[in-house]
Structure formats: C-alpha cells, structure tokens
Amino acid sequence: MKSTPNRLSKLAAHLFLACSLLGTTAVAHAWGDEGHEIVGDIASHFLQPAVRNHAFALLASDTDALTAHDFASETTWADKFRDSDRNTTQVHFLQTRQWHFVDIELTQPNIDVACFQHPALPSGTSAEAGAAADCVVDKINEFAIQLAAPGTTPAEKLIALKFLLHFVGDLHQPLHASDNNDAGGNGKAVTAAGLGSGKLHGFWDTQFVQRLGTDPGTVAQGIVTTITPAQAQQWAQGSPADWAQEAFQVAKTQVYGKLPKPGKTGTYTLPATYVTASGPIVSTQLAKAGVRLAQVLNQALATP
Fold first, then answer.
1. What structural domains does the chain harbor?
2. Which of 21, 48, 104, 119 has a 20 to 30 A CA-CA distance from 268?
3. What is the pLDDT of residues 232-252, one digit of tens each?
4. Cβ proximity of 201 and 11 under 8 Å
5. For residue 121, what are the CA distances in angstroms to 94, 125, 131?
6. pLDDT at 67 over 80
7. Tens of pLDDT along 118-144?
8. More confident residue, 80 or 26
9. Strand-pair partners of 189
10. Apex CA 43: angle with CA 37 and CA 47, to 5°?
11. pLDDT, mean of residues 192-205
12. Distances in Å between the alpha carbon of 62 and those of 38, 47, 160?
C-alpha cells in the first residue's frame, strides 16, 4: 500500500469526484443488503444443527431495532450500525467504518500495512472496543475469539455474532480487499448498457448482485445447489488473511484487470463481456463467503 494511511484519507482526496457523481460522500457498502442476505442464507445451509440453534437463539434475544432478527436480516446490521449516527455524533461511524475492508494496494500489496500493522486488542477489552484503525481481517479474528470464549457474556456474544455475519461477507467483495488509489473503486465512474451510471464499487456491490435474481433467498438456494462437497471442504480451509489475499487476486485480475480504458471524461464504459463475466465471479464469491461464514460459526459455537 502507498504511504496514504487509510481509506479515510483516500476518500478525502476523491471527495470532489464522489460529490460530483452522487452529491454525497462515498461510503463503501460491500454487496449491499441483497448480497449479505444471500451470504447469510448460504451459510445457514452449512451450519451444524446445534450451531444453527445457538446462533438463532442469540439473534432472537436481540432488541436492536436496526434490523429484523432473523439470520439473513442480521447480516446487514453492521452497515446500519455504522451509519446510524453518521449524520450526528459519528461515534459508531468513525469507530467501525474501517473495519469493513482491507485496503491491499494493487501496486504495492502489503496486508500488514492494509491492516495498520495489526493493532493488538488489550487484554480484557472486547472486540467492539478495539482500535478504530483496523481491518476486516483482524476484526473477524477478534470477534470469532470473543464468540467462542466461555467467559463471554451473552450480550458480547450477540454483538460478536452480528459483526461476524457481516464482516465475512465484506471480506469476499473484491473491492473490499483491494485498492488502486481510488478508494476501492469509489473513485472510478462507470457506465454500462442497461445498468446506468455509478461507481465501480457500487456496481460490484449491488448491480452485479441484482443481476443474479430479485429474491436473495431464491438466489442463495440456487447457489447452494452448485456447491459440491469437495468445494465446500476446500473453501472452508485457510484463514481470513488467506481469504483476503484470494479476493485481492480476483480484484487484480478481473475487477481492475479487465477494465477498459476510460473515455475522454474519465468514465469507464463497461462492455457487455465485462458485465457478463461479473455473474460467475460474484456468485462464486458469495458462495465462498457463505461456506466460510458457516465455518467460522461452526468453530466458534461448537459444543465443547
């Protein structure tokens, strides 16, 4: 990663561009609600029965009004929590916004730099009180430990579960694991036939996911039928850092690597081949995220 310390500074550098495109400051939402719900539904299929019951019971105890408390809906909670005070005190916004991504630079890839050199969580500190300058890889590890620890209170287990439901999905959005000095694609204006105009990040978050189908549950069911036992076993291997590097490679070779040259105004016009190729990529990333979310929860909530 280049010397810019984090995406906040990069977003500031691109503020004028983002405002000219949308009239608001860019905020990254990996997959959008639909994508996260698809990940949740896939993960639910791969949960061990006892783990599913435990997770569902924890969520049923939730009194937070930001989302409904079913498994799929709670996958969207971390975005809503982050943005709940964005226009007021910004306590949640500033504390958690950088936890949603790991900015591995295409030109100088270094996950340690992208994770702010992995700030240690002080002993006795819950993961939600950790450093604001941290990455999604570290937060998945920290919240998984918190969820698994026998001394964790029910309230702390619930918060850990809700962050994990979202962050494992975030990690698999290629533009949440990469950066090309463009705020993870938020600095690139794109257009495509039939999809309108927007930002590269938003296309991979939402438009390309929506092309898979209109109902997240139905899309998830279709994806589950394509996952072989061998694939599920293979994808469940590795660590969040490994999964981040994998998503980075997808971004490098496909998301950024297949981009056409920009036009005279700086806008990238995505050809039909790019849009068509996005379908299998998005579907595979959602499938891997679901399998791996289930793996994280199966390990953290396994019966002793």
1. 1-304 (1.10.575.10)
2. 104
3. 999 999 999 999 999 999 999
4. no
5. 18, 7, 8
6. yes
7. 999 999 999 999 999 999 999 999 999
8. 80
9. 199
10. 145
11. 97
12. 21, 20, 12
What are the pLDDT digits (tens) for 218-229? 999 999 999 999
250: exposed, middle or buried (C-beta count within 10 Å: 0-12, 13-18, 19+)?
buried
How confident is the model at residue 28, as a pLDDT? 52
The C-alpha atoms of residue 36 and residue 94 are separated, in whole angstroms, by 22
Residue 4 scores a pLDDT above 70: no
DSSP the chain: --SS-SHHHHHHHTHHHHHHHHSS-----SSHHHHHHHHHHHHHHHS-HHHHHHHHHHHHT---SSS-SSHHHHTTHHHHHHHTTTTTT-HHHHHHGGGG----BSSS--HHHHTTT-PPPPTT--GGGS-SS--HHHHHHHHHHHHH-TT--HHHHHHHHHHHHHHHHHHTSGGGS-BSSSTTTTT-EEEETTTEEEEHHHIIIIIHHHTT-S-HHHHHHHHHHH--HHHHHHHT-S-HHHHHHHHHHHIIIIITTTPPPP-TTS-EEE-HHHHHHHHHHHHHHHHHHHHHHHHHHHHHT---
- For residue 133, the tally of other CB atoms under 10 A from its CB is 14
Distances, alpha carbon 66 to alpha carbons 32, 53, 84, in Å = 15, 22, 8
Residue 172's pLDDT band, with cuts at 50, 70 and 90, is very high
Distance between CA atoms of 242 and 236, rounded to whole angstroms?
A: 11
